[in-house]
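Exercise 7. Given the encoded structure of a 600-residue chain, write a plausible sequence.
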């Protein structure tokens, strides 16, 4: 009996640290109001404090820029480093588990969110606070919040399971995408793992207020189809009167034929439902129909109509002659054989030229029959001229890589409504101004800058010897990879310095982008360029288009689809096929170089 009691006592004793750890895990820390003097002196009531604009003005003597709130560059050094600069010189790892949750917002036209996160184990004893910034995707900074611990606080490793929260970010647009960045303080000068970013979308109007309260998101939920002879009657529910929707439209299409009808219900007869007829539809045909309010970017209700065959009087199934009955199957068999032979030849030829992606036919059929709504959008016409894009790259990966960059610029110029600036195309101006001066001018005048990152981008420039191999010189001369190599790499490093300064000042980084081709790796992106949006080409062409023109890819009830820049459709264009082949050739060359370097 006493042995059982002793074992139970030992289990309870060992379980106490686990209970304590559970208490730490469930703890949620919210910001508190503190005086800046209390934080600097290390008072006991200043564990996790919000810093306001008045605190910044009191400490520095001037107001911060309005969008940045209380955030300033190097906040630990500016607010806590006067008494002891050493407390702001340690390395602190980026926070973990960054989450965004929506909270109550009385305004029906906006949303409010709160950000939560956990501190990292690494460097938690030297943690001095957090800085949380919110930025509209593809736009400028919306708001920024700063939170500090008092100078004498040193958190143990067990507190890495605690959840810290920000103050609410209010007034956000509904159905919009934002990027939130949580930065651990202090921020050392040479350290790339001090922040964590997360992209999220605010609630749509329908999610926040209900479908019956949103004019843009409303669509008819109940649609009933009845066929009587050759006439088809469609009945649907009308929008609530408070939305002010007075007209609708119907669009049916099949086999290249379209049937469009404007619908204007009479609210005096029926205020809840309306019926209309579809005429001139072909028998034995399956139609896909869309029904929506006659409003800009309205969500469409998709449904199918199968027009049945109607047997007419006097029609006889024996009207087909014997010769037709014999010739028709023979012709179909010949056509089927030709189609099979042609498909086999095309498949063999495509396999020899390049490696193509494989997609199962049942997946394609499922995608086509899923009824996913496609939204037709036009580019915003606020700008009279297309955006100006400067493409920078490194020529150390050889002519194949440069050719891929050139084909990418040609595709963007022709099919993405963008004016591309590339030194390969402006050799006269480069010769007149000098390559470095030309790049500096283009960096200032361009709306966007895209850096194509590759393995050679991190290569240290070495001046070539006077004597060289004639074959290599001739190969490089065709794409001009030798004359502008050093100035191009210097321009890329200049862009990296611009990005670093803009990030330190809290400025908008949407002007700068980084990209890698499919044969490169994300580790080829320099550290300073990882702060900006980066893409993998050619699979991320739609994302690049969205960045250049500020067009959202997803909206409530629909998505943006541009056939000639989709992952499957871009190769159907001549410029897209040339780009795909150039990327394939460059990938073969790069893999051969890696294999050779490994063997060496």
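Solution.
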């Amino acid at each position: 009996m006493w042995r059982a009691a002793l074992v139970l006592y030992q289990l309870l004793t060992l379980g106490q640290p686990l209970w304590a750890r559970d208490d730490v895990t469930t703890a949620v820390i919210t910001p508190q109001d503190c005086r800046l003097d209390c934080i600097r002196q290390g008072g006991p009531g200043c564990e996790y404090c919000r810093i306001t604009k008045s605190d910044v003005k009191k400490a520095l003597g001037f107001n911060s820029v309005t969008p940045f709130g209380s955030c300033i560059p190097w906040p630990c050094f500016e607010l806590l480093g006067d008494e002891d600069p050493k407390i702001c010189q340690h390395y602190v790892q980026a926070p973990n588990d960054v989450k965004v949750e929506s909270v109550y917002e009385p305004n029906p036209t906006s949303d409010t969110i709160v950000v939560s996160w956990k501190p990292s184990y690494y460097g938690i004893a030297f943690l001095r606070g957090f800085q949380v910034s919110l930025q509209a995707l593809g736009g400028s900074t919306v708001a920024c919040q700063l939170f500090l611990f008092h100078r004498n606080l040193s958190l143990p490793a067990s507190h890495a399971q605690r959840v810290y929260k920000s103050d609410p970010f209010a007034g956000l647009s509904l159905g919009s995408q934002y990027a939130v960045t949580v930065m651990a303080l202090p921020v050392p000068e040479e350290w790339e793992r001090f922040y964590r970013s997360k992209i999220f979308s605010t609630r749509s109007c329908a999610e926040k207020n209900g479908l019956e309260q949103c004019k843009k998101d409303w669509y008819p939920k109940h649609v009933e189809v009845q066929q009587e002879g050759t006439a088809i009657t469609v009945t649907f529910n009308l929008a609530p009167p408070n939305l002010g929707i007075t007209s609708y439209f119907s669009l049916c299409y099949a086999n290249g034929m379209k049937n469009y009808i404007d619908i204007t219900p009479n609210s005096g007869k029926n205020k809840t439902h309306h019926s209309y007829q579809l005429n001139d539809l072909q028998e034995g045909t399956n139609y896909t129909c869309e029904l929506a309010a006659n409003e800009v970017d309205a969500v469409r209700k998709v449904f199918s109509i199968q027009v049945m065959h109607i047997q007419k009087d006097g029609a006889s199934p024996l009207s087909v002659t014997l010769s037709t009955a014999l010739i028709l199957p023979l012709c179909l068999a010949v056509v089927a054989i030709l189609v099979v032979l042609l498909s086999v030849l095309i498949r063999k030829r495509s396999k020899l030229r390049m490696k193509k992606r494989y997609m199962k036919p049942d997946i394609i059929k499922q995608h086509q029959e899923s009824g996913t709504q496609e939204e037709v959008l036009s580019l915003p016409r606020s700008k009279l001229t297309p955006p100006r894009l400067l493409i920078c790259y490194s020529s150390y990966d050889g002519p194949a890589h440069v050719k891929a960059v050139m084909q990418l610029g040609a595709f963007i110029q022709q099919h993405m409504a963008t004016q591309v600036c590339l030194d390969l195309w402006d050799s006269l101006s480069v010769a007149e101004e000098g390559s470095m001066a030309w790049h500096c001018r283009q960096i200032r005048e361009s709306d966007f800058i895209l850096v194509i990152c590759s393995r050679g981008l991190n290569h240290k420039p070495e001046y070539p010897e006077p004597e060289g191999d004639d074959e290599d010189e001739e190969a490089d001369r065709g794409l001009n990879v030798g004359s502008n190599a050093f100035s191009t790499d210097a321009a890329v490093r200049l862009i990296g310095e611009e990005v670093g300064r803009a990030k330190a000042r809290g400025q908008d980084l949407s002007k700068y982008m980084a990209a890698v081709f499919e044969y490169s790796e994300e580790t080829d992106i320099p550290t300073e360029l990882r702060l900006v949006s980066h893409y993998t080409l050619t699979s991320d062409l739609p994302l690049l288009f969205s960045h250049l023109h500020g067009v959202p890819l997803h909206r409530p009830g629909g998505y943006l689809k541009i056939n000639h820049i989709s992952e499957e459709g871009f190769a159907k264009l001549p410029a897209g096929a040339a780009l795909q082949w150039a990327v394939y050739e460059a990938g073969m060359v790069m893999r051969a170089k890696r294999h050779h370097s490994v063997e060496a």
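Remark. Residues 322-353 form the longest helix (32 residues). Students should compare their own answers with the one above.
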